[in-house]
Amino acid sequence: MSSVSYDEQSRTWLLRTPNSAYGLGVSADGTSVRHLHWGGPIGQADLRALAAEAPDDTAVRVAWGEEDPAEFTAWGGLRYDEPSLKVDFADGTRAIEWRYHGHRIAEEDGGRTLTVELRDRSYPLGAELCYRIFDDSDVIERWARLRHLGDDGPIVVRQAYSANWCLPRDQAWRLRYLQGGHLVETQLTETALRPGKFVLESRRGITSHQANPWFALDRAGTATEEAGEVWSGALAWSGSWKLVVELTPAGNLHVTGGYNEFDSPFTLAPGAELVLPVFAGMYGNHGMVGVSREWHAYQLGHVLGSPSQRPPLRPVLYNSWEATYFNVDERSQTRLAELAAEMGVELFVVDDGWFTGRASDRAGLGDWVADPVKFPRGLDPLIERVEKLGMRFGLWVEPEMVNADSMLYRDHPDWVYHFPNRRRTEKRNQLVLNLGRPDVAEWVHASIDRLVSEHPISFLKWDMNRHISEAGWPAETGRNPERAWIDHTRHLYEILDRLRADHPGLEIESCSGGGGRVDLGILSRAEQTWPSDNTDASDRIAIQDGYAHAYAPITMTCWVTDSPNPITGRRLPLPYRFHVAMAGALGIGGDLLAWPEGERAAAADLVAAYKAIRPLVQYGRLYRLASLRDGTVAASQYLADDGAELAVLAWWRPRSFGVWAGRLRLAGLDAAARYQDAATGEVYGGGLLMHSGLPLPTGLEYDSMLVHLIRV
Ligand code: DGJ
User: Fold this and answer.
1) Residue 238 in contact with ligand 1 by CB distance below 6 A
2) Annotated active-site positions, please?
3) Number of helices and strands (H, E) in the chain?
């Protein structure tokens, strides 16, 4: 059970989740909302005692701006830590002075919410600090709503972060985060924090391959995989974002973040409001994997599905990209579909290359009609064939983009981001449509809506193959054209929300040249994401491991592709490629026409084996049993909620001769129960599996293993 309570006497609020507590209170002078506690469970009396403590232990420190931790820091006065909010009022005043205005506690949107309202003492600016908690989760959702409460003169918002997460005072911390690049996304990285600032951000208009808006912090070196306190956060925003992790010399650590303010002033007109994206956070005391599991459960219950209805299991999909690239036509796709169906594929996705003029990446983007040469009978005969084969049909689109060589660009050269007298920088021969423009957003919606209305398409792979540059909007000069940085993503969300509402059952895969758009914001309107264009199973282990630190395996599309891999040239055994891809939502992306019959038959068996463990991988509890950071074998375990069934996947990397991995100790089982291997019939005691371990085969180079155990 969770609860939100208010103590009138101390003017404090206590948010209780199943395993954590969060406390805040109005400062004695009513000018700010103090942060009082985020960590293990405490009671209302404890919080009252915390609130009664003086704001800071040395008056000298306060005088120099080493202020007490605050829930939403406004710039102004003696405050020099990273602010949550900075604005310009119409008369040139730039400092904010808050006064506490009131609060509301409510049951809404499936959770309990607390809204604390602040108002500027003299100017018509209001801020609502919003918190939402759930009965079944330790995740606290936070965001803020800014309001222009007057009828005169705009307020320019220079910096507005969704939430300020304050951690207990301590001097040494470890930060874990996800960084990378194209083909090497979501690399789990750690750094020791010392006084100073550590900034993670994207200024690219999308989430980015380079950094992901997620963090995990523990007191230096105290959290292991399964034990220890961890504070973690994730931002629900797919545009430019920023997280500032600041440790002051006095040992105050806070993480604040939200929209990236770079080049992004946002003008708030009289009466208007700006709702900042959710910045979710959670405290756990079951180590790093405990935090990952909590994020996964939260996403299953509150982002992708609801507590009463989990998201449906992801189908095994086939994707044509690495098989046919741009050489898509009815014949090649029909043949691929037939082979895919024989292997047990449930969703057949035609990737790039299907639309008018799309012979290469140089032309066609924007013209979302099937190419008459490649599909002289249109898309429907192929879709019908796919459905007859027992599969659903999906299609690739990249709606935010245009090639200069397209009908769309010839008709609307002004629809792309650009500045007068500046080049329109192309990447992959394409330009970005200014989705901040309502007319462009409307057109994008209409063209994709037409596509899914005219054809029985139940899945869209929504790609975005470049970042935004020259984000100009000349027609709006002087009227806050910079708001397009924010409105691009808001309009994208609106388009996806509308399409999904109007076409029930339409599923989305978020892709951005691989893993450039993976975050909590897109996950509330996309069933799955494409984590990387790197499909080499060996490289993929680290990408998927980092991904699953923050995001649920059910959302992680993983293809089995050809050997040698088209990108890295590495040759890997078929079972290894499958076993690595089984760690998420399995797909196949190879050129099946070139796979020998024996391999296709083996692949069909592996697909069947995956289907048997699919609910465990997609809904189960993750245990990271072994990591390539520590040795030559990586292994993950997926345990059913009721503990009755589990799957173990293990993958070897090249190993030196004579290195023996020994046994793999499983976790979370019933020591007194017995578990049977579904393939061999062998029965093991739970105690033995946990404390001695599952015997590992010698493990040759790029060996792998799937074990499915069922409690007997
Ligand atoms: C980038 C994606 O990540 C690939 O999977 C593929 O869809 C290409 N774009 C198509 O252009």
Assistant:
1) no
2) 463, 533
3) 14, 38
